[in-house]
Amino acid sequence: MGNATAAAIAGSSALLRIETVGAVLTVGLNRPAKRNALNDGIVLAIQDCFSSLPDGIGAVVIHGIGDHFSSGLDLSELTEHDATDGLRHSQMWHRVFDRIQYSRVPVIAALKGAVIGGGLELACAAHIRVAEPSAYFALPEGQRGIFVGGGGSVRLPRLIGVARMTDMMLTGRVYSATEGASYGFAQYLTEDGNAFAKAMELATRVANNAPLTNFAVLQALPMIAEANPQTGLLMESLMATVAQSDKEAKLRIRAFLDRKTAKVKPA
């Protein structure tokens, strides 16, 4: 672990619990008494963490210490904001959550308890979301007289659709973990207390992928999906050419052809 990373971890130890398990970095939101409400300190600590990931890390698991992932924005920080402060505050969150979405390694969110408001926006910035039955999803901003400001209006509709997000914000609707897994809030639903373990299992698996393939999935795939078809197909061809010419890809293909790796089978 580099000096910059060590310094960042030391400086944020009160707000984040950061540990390394093999090639996986775990990042725990550490304000359990506040249901891991997100204040400027914890958001900036997340920025420091994702700005200096150690070279040996192949995946990140972000989770909440205690019974909840995150209850969202700490509203006490908004009381003194004027319009200019509010704009800068929202853009700061955008920059930090972009660090997660455009991280060089996959990020998996382990969800339990409250995943609401800014906490849901944070979860949406991850690439894979794993929820346990205690998780519930909500956007109470409509009842608070505010609007999402952490990228939720961009990221969440791509997961669940504009109509469902509209309903959540207008009516305060709360989705259970089971509903959330069906509607796209999470890709995995585990047994009670098992979201973190499942997230670690997935993180360990994806950390073993070829780094260039992970890069293509994280960086190129979202752009291809949003491009016009001909642009997307060209980008796909270019990315496929770069990936398959990489030394790591050649070694893995040879291992498969030599029957050293297992064939794909149903679970």
Structure description:
The protein folds into 2 domains: 3-207, Alpha-Beta Complex (2-enoyl-CoA Hydratase, Chain A, domain 1), CATH 3.90.226.10; 211-257, Lyase 2-enoyl-coa Hydratase, Chain  A, domain 2 (Orthogonal Bundle), CATH 1.10.12.10. The strands form 2 sheets. Strands 1-2-3-4-6-9 form a 6-stranded mixed β-sheet, with helices on both faces. Strands 5-7-8 form a 3-stranded mixed β-sheet. 50% of the residues lie in helices and 14% in strands. The chain has 267 residues and is of the alpha/beta class.
Please give a handful of descriptors for the protein shown.
alpha/beta, single chain, six-stranded mixed sheet, 12 helices, Lyase 2-enoyl-coa Hydratase, Chain  A, domain 2, disordered N terminus, three-stranded mixed sheet, 2-enoyl-CoA Hydratase, Chain A, domain 1, 50% helix, 2 domains
Topology of this protein?
Elements: H1 3-11, E1 16-21, E2 24-29, H2 40-51, E3 59-64, H3 83-101, E4 107-111, E5 114-116, H4 118-125, E6 128-131, E7 136-138, H5 141-144, H6 152-160, H7 162-171, E8 175-176, H8 177-183, E9 188-189, H9 195-207, H10 211-226, H11 229-244, H12 247-257
Parallel strand pairs: 2-3, 3-4, 4-6, 5-7, 6-9
Antiparallel strand pairs: 1-2, 7-8
Sum this structure up briefly.
This protein is an alpha/beta fold and 267 residues long.
CATH class of the largest domain: Alpha Beta
CATH superfamily of the largest domain: 2-enoyl-CoA Hydratase, Chain A, domain 1
- Tell me the total number of β-strands: 9
Shape: globular
CATH architecture of the largest domain: Alpha-Beta Complex
Query: How far apart lie the N and C ends?
Result: 36 Å
> What is the average per-residue confidence, as pLDDT, rounded to a whole number?
88
State the order of secondary-structure elements, H for helix, E for strand: HEEHEHEEHEEHHHEHEHHHH
Helicity, as a percent range: 40-55%
- Provide the gyration radius in Å: 19 Å
How would you classify the helix and strand content by structural class? alpha/beta
With strands numbered from the N-terminus, the spatial order across the biggest sheet is 1-2-3-4-6-9
**What oligomeric state is this?**
single chain
CATH topology-level fold name of the largest domain: 2-enoyl-CoA Hydratase, Chain A, domain 1
Strand content: 5-15%
The low-confidence parts are 1-12
- Main beta sheet, described? 6 strands, mixed
| Number of helical stretches of at least 4 residues | 12
